[in-house]
Write a structure and sequence with these properties.
Blueprint lengths: L1 E7 L2 E7 L8 E5 L6 H9 L6 E6 L2 E4 L12 E4 L11 H5 L8 H14 L15 H13 L5 E5 L7 H18 L3 E5 L2 H7 L2 E6 L2 E6 L1 H6 L4 H6 L4 E9 L2 E4 L2 E5 L10 E6 L4 E3 L6 E9 L3 E7 L5 E7 L9 E6 L3 E5 L1
Parallel strand pairs: 3-8, 3-9, 6-7, 7-8, 13-20
Antiparallel strand pairs: 1-2, 1-4, 4-5, 9-10, 11-12, 11-14, 12-13, 14-20, 15-19, 16-17, 16-19, 17-18
Helix pairs in contact: 3-4, 5-6
Bound molecules: adenosine-5'-triphosphate.
The site of adenosine-5'-triphosphate has 11 residues, from helix 1.
Length: 340
């Protein structure tokens, strides 16, 4: 995607979106409802004209503001949130739907192979309404993969499934795509899904791509305050620049890792993730528990510092402290990220 803009009527929905996927890579557009994720997928698939920029696929320019390849020529497969299966066809009929050009034997072989890949080998003759949501989505995936697409697009593919199945299926789908070297782009507003599936994630807000990066970098090195807030949990503490690249805040003094230009005396906000703040009984620094959420192996504590500012801390759940109790804490971080 090279500086792609899309709009509806007078409204601009995507502004100069640029990102790329290498062959076999899985990307994800992540962002709140209405930010333009689906519109980006529709533009790539060829259902929405673009107003500026270019879309490249395997060396072809498939869309510009003046020339667009029709969807059926792009060689792009799609998987939708609502599965969109054909109810009057069996599982095998659905998967083989786009393979009409192949000889019958070859089509049969390919359908059987794909059903094996998605774990539905015994269901070829079932009608899709008799399948669970997770199984229906596997049929949709097999159908999209059948014509060997150059790119697979997945629009919130797991959002109709319960949380546990969603996590398992995202991992399974990643394994299937990786084993076949399929290049894919997913859209979701669920960061856990994005983390489980994607190599590269783009965080979007109001039609703009704020950062295109690995999950690790989005979490530890967010380029933008919105990205820092949207991805993972955390708290911001006021800080003062005390020397070039040196910040002082209520929990200590650290070097600043961000690209933010830090002039001495400048007031900034430091991002602290829950895993940056450790519970340590031997620490002289104390904070009061104001909220706690049980997460199984851990508690997520919200802790008030003496100033009243709060930070989050992930603590192994055998450290069960009461609300109001003061506990020792220590910062486990060498560099901090700061925002103006
Ligand atoms: N056909 C349309 N005509 C006019 N406006 C539209 C049309 N489709 C989408 N929009 C608007 O474009 C913006 C982006 O919509 P889009 O569906 O791409 O967002 P999204 O990030 O996929 O949201 P969600 O997560 O809720 O699906 C929204 O403000 C939406 O109202």
């Amino acid at each position: 995607m090279d500086q792609v803009s899309v709009g509806y009527g007078a409204k601009s929905v995507l502004a100069q979106l640029s990102f790329g996927l290498a062959k076999g890579e899985i990307g994800c557009l992540l962002g709140p409802s209405g930010c333009g994720k689906t519109t980006a997928l529709r533009a790539i698939a060829g259902f929405e004209p673009i107003r500026a920029g270019r879309i490249h696929l395997n060396g072809d320019i498939i869309a510009t503001a003046t020339a667009q390849w029709p969807p059926q020529q792009r060689g792009i497969g799609m998987v939708f949130q609502d599965y969109a299966l054909f109810p009057h066809l069996t599982v095998a009929g659905n998967v083989g739907f786009g393979l009409g050009a192949l000889p019958r034997q070859e089509r049969r072989r390919r359908v059987a192979e794909l059903l094996e890949v998605v774990g539905l080998a015994g269901h070829a003759d079932d009608y899709t309404h008799a399948l669970s949501g997770g199984q229906q989505q596997r049929v949709a995936l097999a159908r999209a993969l059948a014509p060997s697409p150059r790119l697979l697009l997945l629009d919130e593919p797991f959002s109709n499934l319960d949380v546990e199945l969603r996590e398992r299926l995202s991992q399974e789908v990643r394994d299937i795509l990786k084993s076949r070297g399929i290049t894919a782009l997913l859209v979701t507003h669920d960061q856990h899904e994005a983390f489980a599936l994607a190599d590269k994630i783009g965080v979007m807000a109001e039609g703009r791509l704020l950062q295109w990066d690995s999950a690790y970098a989005l979490y530890h090195e967010p380029a933008d305050r919105f990205v820092a807030d949207f991805v993972g949990e955390g708290a911001f503490l006021p800080a003062t620049v005390v020397a070039p690249g040196e910040l002082e805040f209520e929990l200590g003094r650290r070097t600043c890792q961000s690209t933010l230009v830090c002039e001495p005396g400048q007031k900034v906000q430091v991002l602290l993730r829950p895993d940056d703040v450790l519970h340590d009984d031997s620490s002289q620094r104390h904070a009061r528990v104001v909220k706690k959420a049980f997460r199984g192996a851990q508690f997520l504590y919200t802790l008030a510092l003496p100033s009243g500012a709060t930070v989050l801390s992930l603590v192994p759940s055998h450290h069960d402290h009461a609300i109001g109790e003061a506990i020792g804490i220590r910062l486990e971080i060498d560099h901090v990220i700061a925002f103006a």
